[in-house]
Amino acid sequence: MNSWLVRNLILPAHELISRRDTFRFYRHLKKSQWTPSDKLAELQLSKLRKLVAIALNNTSGYADLAGLEESFVPKTLDDLQLLPILDKDTIRTHLDSLVNRDVPGGPIRFATGGSTGEPLVFYLDRRRQGWDKAARMLTHEWFGVRPGDREIYLWGSPIEITGQGKIKAFRDRMINEMLLPAFDLTKDRAGEFISAIRRFKPKSIYGYPSIIAMLCRFAAETGERLDNIGIKAIF
User: Fold this and answer.
1) Are the beta carbons of 11 and 147 closer than 8 angstroms?
2) In sequence order, which ranges of 61-208 are alpha helices (DSSP H)?
3) Which of 40, 137, 167, 202 gives 20 to 30 Å between its CA and that of 49?
């Protein structure tokens, strides 16, 4: 698909249909990236206070887990150290009490691919998804990859894999994305992956570092060049 068309028409429409304000967030980030450091620190503190207030007042268990009063307000950014680190085991044990059920649009269930063991279930909301997408668009742009440019995902989350089908494949093509199932990569199938990358001609690749390193190693062993495809960045 033409990158200009995807960037200016299809992708913005896709995000709106998905009920995400991605491009509004993207424009905000493009502007705010030049904010002076002192003003940026003020913005960070303001956002930290809002986040802590939501966690303390909109979940049933975070206050107890953090050992904080619901009225707690961070005074400086250094107070971030007062918040507990939530590791995977803690999240698994206390998941239900850590979810904000009142988030606009409701929480959306996700799970990691379980590449390091047991998959981790977690929740996001539409606003969080929009900010995540906007931040990725901006960081991609720093490396010369614009929204709508072709990107391949070497990924393996059950969300992406089980969602495959005609509808998702069509959507991916429309927004210039392609998913290659990371955990299907073997030495025998490396040629298939490389051929798919060559046909798609992505400007960037996003994936697990270990899988990307494996693909590069397989390519080197077979004499396949990957530096002449037009890839500008790997994330």
Assistant:
1) yes
2) 62-66, 88-98, 126-142, 158-162, 166-174, 190-200
3) 137
Angle between helices 22-32 and 126-142 (to 10 degrees): 50
| Torsion angle (degrees, nearest 10) of CA 96, 47, 130, 147 | -140
CA distance 47 to 28: 15
SS3 119: coil
The model's pLDDT over 137-195, given as tens digits with 9 standing for 90+, comes to: 999 999 999 999 999 999 875 544 555 567 887 889 999 999 999 989 999 999 999 99
* CA quadruple 44, 48, 49, 54: dihedral sign: positive
Please give the Cα distance from 197 to 191 (Å, whole number). Answer: 10
Q: How many CA atoms lie within 13 A of 218 on its CB side?
A: 17
